[in-house]
Write a structure and sequence with these properties.
The chain contains 4 helices and 3 strands, in the order ααββαβα. With 129 residues, it is α+β, with helices and mostly antiparallel strands. It is globular. The termini are far apart. The chain has a 3-stranded mixed beta sheet with strand order 1-2-3. Helix 3 (67-79) links the parallel strand 2 (51-57) and strand 3 (84-91). 33% of the residues lie in helices and 18% in strands.
Length: 129
């Protein structure tokens, strides 16, 4: 039962992520998922067969006046998914968003370099004798 339930939750979460990739920051032409504004997606059972979804998100700046608009957009689109009954969207600034939270896809579209990942490869000596 746990394996089946876990699989169903993963499927629902993947559908939610697909929907979040259709929600955009009105000022930046990148979706909220790739911008790194979605901090968590919690999916819980309720009395019906549908799921309750709680999404925690942030905004690029605390003074962003479009926060409620984006939260409402997420709520409307995720609520339309089969198997979802209640959607709650919470906006937080803990931790504050920063550009390193973006995916490499978003970074590329906005002209940022990809996030450097440390490599544990041995240094190759390229000196000729």
């Amino acid at each position: 039962y746990d394996t089946c339930r876990h699989y169903l939750l993963m499927v629902v979460k993947e559908k939610i992520i697909e929907v979040l990739q259709l929600c955009y920051d009105p000022e930046i032409p990148i979706d909220l998922w790739n911008l790194g504004l979605i901090y968590s997606i919690d999916i819980n059972d309720n009395e019906t067969e549908a799921k309750d979804v709680h999404i925690t998100m942030s905004l690029t700046t605390p003074g962003c006046s479009m926060g409620q608009h984006m939260a409402n957009d997420i709520k409307a689109k995720v609520s339309a998914l089969d198997g979802v009954s209640n959607v709650d969207v919470e906006v937080t600034f803990d931790p504050p968003w920063n550009p390193e939270m973006m995916t490499d896809e978003a970074r590329s579209k906005l002209g940022f370099d990809p996030v450097a990942t440390p490599k544990n490869e041995p240094k190759i000596d390229v000196e000729w004798e």
